[in-house]
Amino acid sequence: MLTYGKRAYLQPKQLFCQVCDGAFIYVPGHTNQGDPTEILAYEPLSYHKGEGGNVLRLDGSVKWRSGKDYDEAMARVKAHLRSIPNLPAQ
User: Fold this and answer.
1) Is CB count within 10 Å lower at the N or C end of the chain?
2) How many domains does the chain divide into?
3) Residue 24 and residue 56: Cα distance in Å, rounded?
4) Between the CA atoms of 37, 25, 71 and 90, what dihedral angle is there, to the nearest 10 degrees?
């Protein structure tokens, strides 16, 4: 179970796409003082034939993103990952 602060919000089964059963990709480095709109996990475009993907935000909400919105979400993920010191290269 994932926690945000002292509260548990997610069960592992919630980190799988309901359509294709693919696992979300976790974005490390968040704290419970983070911006609730930050992306905690996302689906790669390949899960939905390049049409978009769901993103899980730190507040526990899941939003579908496609096109420019998906690109902007992934830019936020990349910027967040660059801000983490000593993160191993992927």
Assistant:
1) C
2) 1
3) 9
4) 120
Single-letter amino acid, residue 50 = G
Residue 28 near residue 7, CB atoms below 8 Å: no
Q: Could you tell me the two tokens for 39?
A: 């992306």
Backbone phi, psi, residue 48, to 5°: -130, 40
> Does the residue 45 lie in any domain?
yes
CA separation for the pair 7, 69 (Å, rounded)? 29
Residue 48 lies in a domain: yes
Task: Tokens for 70, please give them.
Answer: 């998906």
Question: Angle CA(2)–CA(47)–CA(69) in degrees, nearest 5?
Answer: 80
59 within domain boundaries: yes
pLDDT band at 1 (very low <50, low <70, confident <90, very high): very low
SS3 85: coil
